[in-house]
Amino acid sequence: MANEEDDPIIQEIDVFLARSLLEKLYLFQYPIRPASMTYDDVTHLSAKIKPKQQKVELEMAIDTLNPNYCRSKGEQIALNVDGTCTDETSTYSSKLMDKQTFCSSQAASNVSRYAAAVYKKGELHLTPLHGILQLRPSFTYLDKADAKHREREAANEGGDSSQDEAEDDVKQITVRFSRPETEQARQRRVQSYEFLQKRQAEEHWVHLHYYGLKDSRSEHERQYLFSQGHGLAENTELIKSPSEYLMMLMPPSVEEENDKPMAPSNVLSMAQLRTLPLADQIKILMKNVKVMPFANLMSLLGSGTDPTAVLRCVQQVALLVQGNWVVKSDVLYPKDTSSPHSGVPAEVLCRGRDFVMWKFTQDRWVVRKEVAAVTKLCPEDVKDFLEHMSVARINKGWEFMLPYDEDFVKKHPDIVQRQQMLWMGIQAKLEKVYNLLKEHLTPKKQEAQSAHPLLVSGEQRVNMAKAKVKQNYGQLEKELQKQKAEMKSHDASAKTDVPNIRIKEEPLSGEEPMDTSAHSEGLNNGLVNGLHPAQGSPDPVNGHLPGGCIDRVAQELKAFVSSTFKKQFVLTLSELKRLFNLHLASLPPGHTLFSGISDKMLQDMVLDTGCKQILVPFPPQTAASPDELKVYALWEAGDTYDQHRQVLLEIFSKNYRVRRNVIQNQLSQECGEDLNKQEVDRVLKVSCCS
Predict the structure, then answer these.
(1) Where is pLDDT greater, at 14 or 40?
(2) Which of 5, 42, 235, 236 is the most exposed place for a label (fewest CB within 10 A)?
(3) Bias category Basic and acidic residues: which stretches (predicted)?
């Protein structure tokens, strides 16, 4: 009451609602005006509008005689846009930037709360606004200047190109017939951004007549901002009771679905989400996230949510896999839908995805080829299944994306038991549909179901290896003494070799056999550390081979290196090791090359066969591995391209990236031959990779 007494009412003003310009009145918001342009008396050269989109485009003249106008910049802009020639299509016919285009955008989607007010003789007249448009400068003339600049560059390049490059290449054309468009595909196409942009571009501009501020027509139209009659019949909407007036000022929070902006299907508003029932909240969250621990789900639902109710609802839309909740297949693929990749119906997709989920209940790893072979689905569908719940690991397969949630399993054993019964039912259905074999039904590792995945660092592995070597050292020495005793009983030729065998203690950080495990795992040929487990090679003693075996290994390795570099003249160490692993996979068990070949042995053999290391100056910020930076090339192959190859290698030893014309000029100078484009391509193809 004290505040009301301190703030007395000074004047009461009658408010009237004008309807003459209803759904016709727009508010234009202009940017800050430059000194050379005043909107009050500016000359509007043209105006046009797209009524459906409420989009306006105005073209206004700029006062080029104003002292604040920079004439040199205006001439430069006009020259960049139109060039030196002027015709009817020129943007600036006066060779000076003398006009500016403004394009509008909607400032607010809902303008029902805004009105234009006019105060006259103690009366306030309100006219509701139909739209609020913000006008911003349009820089389409810069796009036109860039287009002309690109045309000039293309013309210059076309004029300088040689006759050989101007020859038209014969290209093969593939004709494809599109399939009939489904209803789902048509709806996606209609809702796409490209389609909406096309629809907006198809709407024609409606040209308008602009009338100035002091024009008689403008004066006449401004009279419509006043209420034409002051009777009660026209202003009944302004006569409200106090309660109705308060309700208008503070309306209840009612969600207006029509006014909500359309958001992508994978984007959620947490404020809108929490207004839905609990079951719908959980379904939307699981459908978007797909895999989630129970603790994360509770944190998204907000404080005060009953965990028992959440458990009851989540079991309706998700299944338990390794202690985490994975959304059910029928939630992602509802009935009467199909695959966007292959058109397979939803029932088949659900069975295939259930098989992937079931495999993850048995093991942390799943092989994509195995899933495709069992489900008979296209690779794109199988990849979608795996990406929903796992992460790809190189040379290993797909690993379940979340760790085993042991806390949830311990806290809710009844839920776990119920989910296991559900999986037994799903497994029975999958056995009937896919005719699963025993190898599909038995898990690879029982430990994966009840324990965390073991993560061991490199330092821990080194320590474990050192401890294992110390434990086995005594046993190896006993076996060596036993082998010596057996060798003494052989013929005299064998006796001469046995005394040469010594136990040599080498540090663990010394030269080790070349690591081929990363490649051999991908070959699936049963190699373990370069050896066949069933039948080994001649047994080395502490990593050292007998003298005769070393010679055989060197001969075999030299034959492999020579044949490889005769086929491919330039190789990196990484590529050479990959080819060597493929060669090992093709050899029978017990071959001499399985004795273990180190990187140093392989590189020394490459140099012994007449190859040279090319020190290519790769950039320091390159992401290549050290093995990929070591480049070896065959220097002399005994063919007609030896000289060309040597010139090329000298060029690449100075720069890792060279233009074709530089190579052609250098070859012509060094070899004394005038090589054309086809001959240079042949030299690059035969000698090295371009």
Answers:
(1) 14
(2) 5
(3) 146-155
